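Posted in: Structural Biology > Protein-Ligand Complexes

Title: Requesting predicted complex, nicotinamide-adenine-dinucleotide in pocket

I'd be grateful if someone could produce the 3D structure tokens for the following input. Sequence and ligand are given below.
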Amino acid sequence: MTETIGFIGLGRMGEPMAGHFLAAGHRLIVCDLRDEAVAALVDRGATPARSPAAVASEAETIIVSLPTPDIVKDVALGPNGIVAGGRARNFIDLSTSGPDMAREIAAGLGARGIGFVDSPVSGGVAGARAGTLAVMVACPDELFTEFGPLLGAIGTVFHVGTEAGLGQTMKLANNLLTASAMALSAEAMVMGTKAGLDPQIMLDVINAGSGRNSATQDKFPRAILPRSFDFGFATGLMQKDVSLYVQVARSLGVPIDVAGAVETIWRKTAAEFGSESDFTSIVRGIEPRAGVEVKPRTKPKS
Ligand code: NAD
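-- Reply #1 --
Done. Output follows.
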């Protein structure tokens, strides 16, 4: 069924995801602080709106992909948020905003009769473009029946629970692993390179062996060995995810021996290279301290 959907937050993830909803035939009302992001979707047939409230005066279903929990809260519940729009019936949050914020927003929207679908995603910009994300939905069964098929346009949809926050909890567990794999792979690759191994050969071996992970299979070959450092995920967002994980684990009384160390290195990377830097910059923080660069000496395998 085609319907009018509002989409707010047309960034690295939002722009390609919004494109899939357009391609599926839905009418899209779009909003972003960046005019050029709105213009790109308007060129493809979307209708622009100046504020979240304006989006919600036209669309019953509003999807967001926004950077931080506070921004999601403001867009949902703020004075110019979707609650001020009149037509909003359901709000789907694809952002990583943490379980506490998901529960707070669900309660705030629920008080206005608006349903909340907690629905963070994993798979990066490449997954968003290809429509192959893992979509971690937590909402009541009736909302899942209504919106599960719609979300199928951006990837594989998992109903991980009925309570708001469980999708976020799932996402934080996933991203702790992404963040840890990246941090540890960076240290191991710098160590091997300094000891005299060729980084390309290291990746070939690791990816054929038991050390393989999303950093060695994807991030190092695509953005670190070519020295482009442009994978498409901001250091500040990675740090946000790990810090949210640490908060949740602490509140549950779960040890954070390793997660705490991972949080420290992401904080350091954000302080050194800035929140907006690509998260593959973590390698550039370790390299000068070791006095070596992770550069291939042989051509990558085609
Ligand atoms: P991004 O910074 O590229 O995009 C965010 C967009 O939101 C920007 O276009 C920005 O202008 C817009 N925006 C900010 N405040 C706004 C407001 N008040 N009103 C309207 N628009 C506003 O971020 P991203 O990488 O696309 O990530 C978006 C969310 O998805 C984050 O929560 C992130 O943690 C999560 N995520 C990102 C990735 C990834 O690989 N990039 C993967 C999975 C999940």
